Amino acid sequence: MADLAAPSTGLAGTVPRAGTPEQREARIAWLLAAPALLLVLVFIILPVAAVIGLGFTDFELGYADFRFVGLENYAELFDDRTFQRSLWNTAVYAGIVTPVSIFMALGLAMLIEAEGIGRSFFRTAYFLPVASLLVAMATVWQYLFHPSIGPINAMLATFGIPGPNWLGASSTVLYSLSIIGVWQSVGFNLVLFLAGLTAIPRELYAAAEVDGAKSGWDRFRLVTWPMLGPTTLFVTTISIINSVKVFETVKTLTEGGPNKASEVLLFTIYQEGFVYLRVGYASAMTVVFLAILVVLMFLQYRVQDRQVHYS
Amino acid sequence: MSALSLRNIEKSFGGNHILKGVTLDAGPGEFIALVGPSGCGKSTLLRILAGLETADSGDILIAGRDMTAAHAADRNIAMVFQSYALYPHLTAAQNIAVPLVMRRLTRARRLPFLGRMMPGQRKAVADIHRDVRDMAASLKIDHLLDRKPGQMSGGQRQRVALARAMVRRPSIFLMDEPLSNLDANLRVHARGEIVDLHRRAGVPTLYVTHDQAEALSMADRVAVMIGGSLLQLASPQVIYEDPQHVEVAKFIGQPRINLIASQVEDGATVALGGTRCRLVDRAAAAGSAVTLGIRPEFVSVSRQGNEGLPARIERLEFLGSEVIVYCRLDAIGETMVAKVTPAEGADLSPGVPVRLTADARHIFVFSKDGSRLAAAPLSSIVTREALHG
Amino acid sequence: MTSASFTPGRVARLSILGLGALVFLAPYIFMVSTAGKAQSDIFTSSLSLIPQQWFYVQNFAKALSRVSMGRLLMNGVVVCALILVFQVVIAIPCAYAMAKLKFRAARALMVLVMLGLLVPIHATALPLYVAFDRAGALNSYVALVAPFTISVFGIFLFLQFFRAMPDDLIHAARLDGMSEPGIIARVIVPNAWPAVTAFSIFSVVAHWNDLYWPLIVVSNQAYATPPLGLLYFRAAEAGDDYGALMAATLIITFPLVAAFLLAQKRFVEGITMTGLKG
């Protein structure tokens, strides 16, 4: 922290007024950016470099020496049933949560936007899960999903339907987690869609009507959907990334079980790296995780570039 | 000693030569308007003078001291920005006080709370309050002092910006199109006020505008900048009546000066219809291309006779005290504009064939590179002799 | 508004919205209800919302006795506050320099920021853990706070906001005699409150809820943050004592939910702004 203190006292004191104004400006800019730059290097750039480097080693915490193993970790990943299972589960989870939460949010946002009363009540109700501690709310969901004393199965029983063992059976656990995921993320998407909808000029709808878009669906296709393009793209990327990062509910409720049916990427990395302390191997997994994020961002930029007419 | 002098200021932005060696001197208490079309470099010049940008080369002297490398805050220059740049989170009074607080109170005194315990603080703060109130009173904005910029009208903001600039008695006063955000009525009123303030304060002022009416009506001298060069610096009257460059003639004057491409004839004469001028000192060879300029008020329109350039009226603009007549010349198909009195314009209407005559005393001759060539009218008798001879 | 204006379409709309809201709020309703039920009550009548015997006091007492809830909440506040202060104090000058000052590294810094936006704590956790372990700094506030002192998202958000501020305002401040740090303190920050508020809400929500990093660096209850504490509580409460468990979740969820309900307009604005800028 001593390094950080030095530039900041330099700022508080007099900045020496030497050199051309450009040089002065550049020097001040450097001083102002230095703490951030230093921390970016220490906490982001170096660790990422270290992760990539460690991915080529057999480093384990607790053992002093380690050696370079080249692509051995990646070869092992290729045959690792748990890791494959975990990738697949993550994909399934994201494949459910992303579209459901987006379309549910879009539908609700349009209903709220069209409705005059209760606007802020509905917004609050759907947004509440975003502001709630997920670990805590997961615990509540565990109770709701409880096979014997849980309210959901009790309700199903009143209709004569035998409820499943939601979080306890390998056939349903991923879907149960997805329900929690959707519940947790709809509010965030909804608020963004609401902002997007409010930003659409009223005249466009009037123009669409004058131009002959009679049904609500026509107006949606002609105005709402294209105008929401940038919002939808952003919401989609963020939703996919957030679902790929699913961890809290898995750690709290299932620990990857039963029978690895809910092993997801971050949980597997956590287990390998911080429970079994196989840092080298977990680093290789992390590199795969990072690669997925990079690809997702790259896809977003590509799509964004093509949507020039929206901006 | 001049209050301000700029020597050979050069500036390029990524290959764009914005300022091409601008030199300018301002006397004590002088009001100079820097006028030119947008993108001519006038705002850049102002910013370089203020220390907000740096020139690639050239010197800046303020009251005889070299300020080329000085920090903006050390130049003792005040500036009114086009957007006024008032601090949105401060009241009018606080806005006006900022330059005083920054200059009169030391860094320690400016500390919140602690500063209040410094000896002499009460006196210093009271002085600032007094100066702010005096300034506000002289600009008649006392009633606005507790308002924030968001609660004021454009005209009120402009006055607060003026007050903030003037309160610390700067050695030079810069204004960057300070009236362009006001509506037309207010703008004319504000012109008079700024000129008044300038007379009272006596601080040399550099006023940037793209509005020639503002420049001509307010300034002691007008500097016309076009394409990064200062083409002429002179009193408004000289700028209008004796432009030294075709671009100056083109830019100043409403409606625009008529420019007709022509050639120097034998005997170093030029002709516009029947009107002829001779180039003094035979400045250009026969056959070389020149541009002839004649302001609309020196073109007369006549429905009779066969002297002058034959033309046809295209359009008339009635402006109350005068009528602008747009004619198309039969010979070359170019438009020529005349300004006539309503009485003269009474029997004119679109489509009517007319003869246009230029007043030889007011024909400007410009060479191919745009510079002015001295010329004197030839008497019409001489002209006729020349024609028959 | 008369009942006549309730067209069938509108009734359908309101029913869907109402039903949806009920489903979304159901977990909260059951949480509050179950926190007041006795164990026997929970096992027999899970669908009745009103407890047969009021067991709130007993359940809350149990929740408070197993894990030091006060300690957890205090840790949460300290960690979130420290993170926020560091993030803002470090990000604002950097964003200002990048947005308003000319220096050659600005473009390179922008690339760093864009790259940084891609990298979540999950990707850097392994080497950071090794480093903190080597430094003997695990189980400390330093370990909880340090990796988050830099928020590239914060830099990005402030950068966008500062870019929209007029250059003339800063030029005027320079002519008025302010230094660059003075401009930040006296002109930029007072006019950047919407961005600072939005970022604060974003940051606090993110770090109050974060489980991953605290789980890695903290193994000692003394430094547990709320999510981690709840995990300990669940581990200690091996059985199905949902009454006490719900009481504990209620206590832990309450602060942020209450803050949200009190300032929901700011919350929603903040999330919208951070969302759309990011």
TrEMBL record, chain A:
Report the subcellular localization.
Cell membrane
Q: Which residues form the ABC transmembrane type-1 domain?
A: 87-300
Q: Name one GO cellular component term.
A: plasma membrane
- On the tree of life, the source organism's domain of life is Bacteria
BP terms from Gene Ontology: transmembrane transport
Entry keywords, A to Z: Cell membrane, Membrane, Sugar transport, Transmembrane, Transmembrane helix, Transport
Q: Does the keyword Repeat apply?
A: no
Topology relative to the lipid bilayer, per the entry, is:
Multi-pass membrane protein
Q: List all membrane-crossing ranges.
A: 28-56, 91-112, 124-145, 173-201, 222-241, 275-299
Entry's Gene3D superfamilies? Answer: MetI-like
Q: Does the keyword Glycoprotein apply?
A: no
Which InterPro entries does the entry mention? Answer: ABC_transporter_permease, MetI-like, MetI-like_sf
Record family assignment = Belongs to the binding-protein-dependent transport system permease family.
Q: Which PANTHER family match?
A: ABC TRANSPORTER PERMEASE PROTEIN, INNER MEMBRANE ABC TRANSPORTER PERMEASE PROTEIN YCJO
The protein depicted here goes by the name Multiple sugar transport system permease protein
UniProtKB/TrEMBL annotation, chain B:
Q: What is this protein called?
A: Multiple sugar transport system ATP-binding protein
Q: Which organism is it from?
A: Mycoplana azooxidifex
Entry membrane topology: Peripheral membrane protein
Recorded superkingdom: Bacteria
Domain ABC transporter, chain residue ranges per copy:
4-252
Q: What is the lineage of its organism?
A: Bacteria, Pseudomonadati, Pseudomonadota, Alphaproteobacteria, Hyphomicrobiales
Q: Which family does it belong to?
A: Belongs to the ABC transporter superfamily.
One GO cellular component term, please give it.
ATP-binding cassette (ABC) transporter complex, substrate-binding subunit-containing
One MF annotation (Gene Ontology) recorded for this entry:
ABC-type transporter activity
Q: Which UniProt keywords apply?
A: ATP-binding, Nucleotide-binding, Sugar transport, Transport
Subcellular localization: Cell inner membrane
Q: Which PANTHER family match?
A: MALTODEXTRIN IMPORT ATP-BINDING PROTEIN MSMX, OSMOPROTECTIVE COMPOUNDS UPTAKE ATP-BINDING PROTEIN GGTA
Q: Which SMART domains match?
A: AAA
Matching entries from Pfam families are given as: ABC_tran, TOBE_2
UniProtKB/TrEMBL annotation, chain C:
Please report the organism this UniProt entry assigns to the protein. Mycoplana azooxidifex
BP-aspect Gene Ontology terms: transmembrane transport
> What is the name attached to this protein's record?
Multiple sugar transport system permease protein
User: Which compartments is it annotated to reside in?
Assistant: Cell membrane
Classification via InterPro entries: MetI-like, MetI-like_sf
Gene3D superfamilies tied to this protein: MetI-like
PROSITE patterns from the xrefs? ABC_TM1
- Thylakoid found in the keyword field: no
Provide the alphabetized UniProt keywords: Cell membrane, Membrane, Sugar transport, Transmembrane, Transmembrane helix, Transport
Q: How does it sit in the membrane?
A: Multi-pass membrane protein
Q: Does the keyword Transmembrane helix apply?
A: yes
The ABC transmembrane type-1 domain covers 73-263
Query: Any transmembrane segments, and where?
Result: 12-30, 72-96, 108-132, 138-162, 183-208, 242-263
- A cellular-component GO term for this protein: plasma membrane
Any Pfam family matching the protein? BPD_transp_1
Q: Which family does it belong to?
A: Belongs to the binding-protein-dependent transport system permease family.
